Amino acid sequence: MVHTYYSAALRGIEGQIVTVEATAVSAPEYRLEIIGLPDTAVKEAAARVRSAGRDLNLSMKTGKVTVNLAPADIRKEGTIYDLPILLSLLKPEEVRNADFSSSVFVGELSLAGTLRPINGALPMALSAAQNGFKHFFCPTENAAEASAAPGINVYPVHDVREILLHFRGILPIEPLQFCGESILNACFDGAPDFSEVKGQETAKKALEVAAAGMHNVMLIGPPGSGKSMLASRLPHILPPLTYEEAIESSKIYSVAGLSGELNPLLTRRPFRSPHHNISSAALAGGGSHAQPGEISLAHNGVLFLDEFPEFAPKARETIRQPLEEHRVTISRVAGSATFPCSFMLVCAMNPCPCGFYGHPTKACTCSPKSKSAYLNRVSGPVLDRIDIQVEVGALEFDDLHSAVACETSEQIRARVAKAREYALSRFDGIRLRNGAPLTANALMEPQHLEVFCRLEEDAKELIRRAFDKLNLSARGYNRLLKVARTIADFEECEAIGKQHVATAIRMRSLDRKYFGSL
Question: Which residues touch 72 (CB under 8 Å, ≥6 apart)?
Fold first, then answer.
């Protein structure tokens, strides 16, 4: 007789239901065979489940036992199938009158039968709910994140015995209630504030525009001018994560094994700041079994690349395609996985190798050749994808000790939210080619520019001169137009005026400084 249970697998950041079937035939010795394209960790479940069953004094099938993980054409990876495999090996008397047809089981077993945490509980629970299952049993450590899945009861389990007592009606497990939506409203509590940044009003204004339109930014300035400090505060002037965004970002963290950062969901927009020695695989994602990289972990948030020219050339160029497509596909022998990566890129760099080119008091020691070589590490195609380039000058003593109160993040965030609301009123119901909703100016596609970026005549003439003088590419022109659209949104102007275009041009420092001026 075949006994059937249900578990789940991961494909990228999405869950997929797996059917666990077990049957036994008489044989002089016990032997367990697991089929259905299992990897080494799944095959090793045979030893773990047998030991756990003995330690818990459970009656288990004897003879030759075959466990099939279906569908068999999808590779089964990891230890998440330990729990359903053990249940499938129990003799009928252990599970008499229990109905498992509406339940999904996931969890790694210790040799003593206790459950250990796994990766990907949230997307698995979401998949179970979408496929009509009513109950989801998982390790206690994963229950909080899994409870965010709507439409399914999540049961925290410490060991296998608890599940059996639950289905016998002796000691029911109470499902965990999701309580995460309210904590999204408190996402700015204790966050670093823009009021702590002295001076740098031009850079602050540029980041405000970037936050309103989700534009990519390059900060250029000498060491100690506040580039990292400014970048770290950018996520806190962005609007709070919506519930849907929190779910999507939390799925990535769950799959990456970063469940400890979920409470039970991500409550703040991600801010990722990898060191410049990171490999291209760690940045984009990879490994023998595809895992999300830093650009996916920054999804719906900010990716900050400090000392950008110091990143390896391959790593720098890795970000080009994800910046356009907002997703990255990782292909391996074991299969391929696609991860979302819609993020704001913030890069920081010095103006030269020594860092003091243009400094008011410190002399630059770099030769013209070394300065040129340093700047050329930022390739044209990458620079073309950065909407705003702003210089962050050295601070003077009076700036640091000024008694004038600086604007708080809350004040800036209010203006950003208002500009975004004005933009969203235009985009109501509009979707991008990939099916995602159009939510920010930086995401506009060419057909949207013709409709939403109408230029006044004097603005059209100015942008024409900018195109010629700054040697803009078609992509650079489109991005300049999007920034001007965002600047106009702050004033709730339907048409883009000359002053909006002029401000957008001033926010392209590298183009103006090194390729000419208007």
Answer: 35, 36, 37
